[in-house]
Structure formats: C-alpha cells, structure tokens
Amino acid sequence: MSGIAIMTSGGDAAGMNPAIKSAVDHARQLGMNPYVVYDGLEGLIDGKIKEATRELTSDMIYRGGTLLRSSRSKRFFDYEFRKQAYEHLKARDINKLIIMGGDGSFRALNDFFNDFEVPFAGIPATIDNDIAGTDYCLGVDTAQNVILDCIDSVRDTARSHHRAFVIETMGRDCGYLAMTTALCSAADICIVPEIPYDLESIYKRLQPAINEEGSCIIAVVAEGTRVAQYLTRWLTERAGMDTRLTVLGHVQRGGSPSARDRLMGTRFATRAVEALHKGDINQIMVYHDGQYGYASLDAVAGQQYSVNPDIINLCRELSC
Ligand SMILES: Nc1ncnc2c1ncn2[C@@H]1O[C@H](COP(=O)(O)OP(=O)(O)OP(=O)(O)O)[C@@H](O)[C@H]1O
Ligand SMILES: O=P(O)(O)OC[C@H]1O[C@](O)(CO)[C@@H](O)[C@@H]1O
C-alpha cells in the first residue's frame, strides 16, 4: 500500500480542515495509506508525521485554521534539510504529498520533486485569493464573511457618532478581499493596489454625506496600499470628520469555515487525491469559470494573478 501525506503550509485558511478530512477519507477509499504532517514544511524536515487515524479527522470539519498547524520555513530552501525531509518520508514508504497553501508552498514541493521525485498535488488556500489560474482559494469566503461582520459592527458605532472609519483588510498585495467586502458592505471609499485613487474627487462625491446629519463614512483599504493611516488623517483634516482607523488584522484568518469553504475544500481535496492516484503529478487544483480543473505550477506560480475586471470596474467609482 502506498503512503500519501497531507500537509498545510504558509498562512492558515478556513477550509483547510475540511480539505484535510476529505483528502484522508478519499485516500483511504482508494486504497492508499494516509498520513498527516504537522507544522508544514518545518514539520516535514523534523519528521512530525503521523498515520491519519479516523479519530484524528473525526472532529475537524467545523474548525477554523489548520489542526495540522502551519509554518513558513527558511530551512526548506536548503538542500540538506530537504534531504532530511525525504528520509522521513522514505522511512514510512510515503511517495505522494498533498500540500495546501499558496504559490510559495507549491514552489517548495516542486523543488522537492526535482530533488527526490516525490510527486505532489497543490490545493490553493489563502485568504488573499491571489493565486493565478484559479478564481477561488480556500479561506476566502469565510474571511469575507468575517470582514463583513466587522464592517457591519463598525457601521453601527460610526453612525451613532457621525464618524468616518477607515477599515484595513489583509490581502498582501492583492485587493480582492477589500474590493469584494467594500461592495458587499456598501462602503463609500475603496482603496486597493489595482486602482489609482483621487482623493479630491472622493471629497467632492462624499460632501453631501459628510454634511448630512446622522451619516457616516466607511472606507475599506487593502493593506497592500499602505495608505490606511494617511487616509485617516486626510479624512480628519480635509473632510473634517472625526475619523478612526480599524486594522482588522488576523481576526480575518479565523472563524469556522463557511459552507462554501467546506464544500470547496472537499471538492479540491478529493480531486487532488484522484490526480495523484491516476498519475497526474505536480498539478495545482483550480476552479475557473465555474469548472474544476488542474493547472501546472508554471501556470500558477509563474503568472501574476489579476482580479476579475468586472469587480475592478465596480470598485472604480469608490476610488474617485
Ligand atoms: N521559491 C521557493 N523555493 C522553495 N521553497 C519555497 C519557495 N518559496 C517559498 N518556499 C517555501 O514555502 C514556504 C511557504 O511559502 P510562503 O511563505 O510564500 O507562503 P504561501 O505558500 O505562498 O502562502 P501564503 O499566501 O499564505 O503566504 C516558505 O516559507 C518556504 O519555506
Ligand atoms: O500571519 P503573518 O505571517 O503575519 O502574515 C500575514 C499575511 O498573511 C496573509 O494573511 C495570508 O497570506 C496576508 O493577508 C497577510 O499579509
């Protein structure tokens, strides 16, 4: 019986646990021996590998984050540590890997394949939704819902005090989370790396709301722009509004996976197991234009992700 190990890497994302459970169950169904690796690439180097018992996955589906834990590993860049990781797999007769994470994690396992020919399948999982070739990454829907709950709550207090709030979302250099949540929360301003902004025209557009009794201003800003503090000062000084900054931070990565993330996790994971079982190696699971498929590492890691132009266009009017 061949062994298959499942691991999570990079930033955690809701949907990883449902995907781990599905991968383990499906591998067992197809006659493979499932293992799990704790602590991502760091754990692979240190041999933190266990057989995946039914008990281990029985309580996973509703839990946020990753119960296998995750890491970013400097050591994995070093051949000697990759060799150490390989020895741990060889000792357990594990000859396939499934990794959930971002393009960095996929590149890591590609290097590992080039060294030791252990094939892998990748599952896109990052709240940033910034992986080329796929319209969806695990964790995005849950993060969007967490952000919307936060913005709705901020709006309650903002309106009570006729205040402006600048709300900074995560996303690294990608504005997807900020754009989609700005649209879904009826924000007044959205500033993202993908769209040039014009503060003076924003000021003119918002003047009626600024002067209206009982109104509030909500600005959603992507962390990648690094302008949240500047915009807060600008709203105070130019627009004359009592303004507060709320940096949502890691709260966006937590929370029980939404129905969408549980389902996407299950679909991606079962396909990843099937790909390896069939011999389709080193593929990244993708969801594009409503279809599930695979993409090569080059198509995913070698390309720049760009947000759907319809979403960008809808947000343009919130940037000027
Ligand atoms: N080019 C590379 N070659 C080998 N290993 C890499 C490479 N890039 C990244 N890695 C390894 O993969 C790990 C995870 O990568 P990274 O920190 O970029 O996260 P990610 O998988 O892209 O996820 P996230 O989007 O959540 O940051 C790194 O800590 C490093 O050990
Ligand atoms: O958890 P860390 O290492 O602080 O990383 C934060 C980064 O990870 C992400 O949450 C996911 O890639 C980004 O949105 C954010 O910039």
Give the termini distance in whole angstroms: 60 Å
Order of helices and strands: EHEHEHHEHEHEHEHEHEHEEHH
Helical content band: 40-55%
Mean residue pLDDT: 97
Sheet with the most strands: spatial strand order: 3-2-1-4-5-10-11
What's the CATH class label of the largest domain?
Alpha Beta
Count of separate structural domains? 2
CATH architectural arrangement of the largest domain: 3-Layer(aba) Sandwich
User: What fraction of residues sit in β-strands?
Assistant: 15-25%
DSSP, total strands: 11
Q: Report the radius of gyration as a whole number of Å.
A: 22 Å
Shape category: elongated
CATH fold call of the largest domain: Rossmann fold
- Characterize the quaternary organization of these chains: single chain
Q: Could you say which small molecules are bound to this protein? A: adenosine-5'-triphosphate, 6-O-phosphono-beta-D-fructofuranose
Structural class: alpha/beta
Count of helices? 12
Largest sheet: 7 strands, mixed
Residue stretches low in confidence (pLDDT < 50, at least 5 long) are none
